[in-house]
Amino acid sequence: MSTLKIREIQQQDNQQVKKVIRDVLIEMGVPKEGTAYEDKALEDMTAEYNAERKAYFVIEEDSKIIGCCGIGPLPGFETEICELQKMYFLPEARGRGLGAQMMETCLKFAKNQNYKKCYIETLPYMKDACKLYKKTGFKELEKPLGSTGHYNCTVWMIKDL
After folding, report:
1. Who has the most CB within 10 Å: 25, 31, 64, 118?
2. Which DSSP letter does residue 35 get?
3. Is pTM, for the whole model, over 0.85?
């Protein structure tokens, strides 16, 4: 029987998380520029999320990170709007309801931090992700919010918390 848990990132998770994110982006054919692939934060996610009103969660199964996602303030809208950041799952994590569990964990954290809305950027061909966001109550926007630097992400969504 496998052991599965969602928990906050720890220092020893950094390399596994970076690998999960980059492996999924490569699998999906995502451009390396203008996306999370080139984010400097990937070098030390623990340090990146060790700040007020930020958290990064991992899904660990049998000592292996199989999924991850974070919440942080949206640049330019820091007090009111958070951003669901770097949500990625390896193939073995998909189709098991783990995305919904991770969303619940992240959105609960966001509400506890008194954010009013949650924003996300993604790509149109990440269809399963888009379906999950819509199912969770995210609505599409016509243009991006904030300044994330992810200019290749062309689907923008927001949800009231």
Report:
1. 118
2. S
3. yes
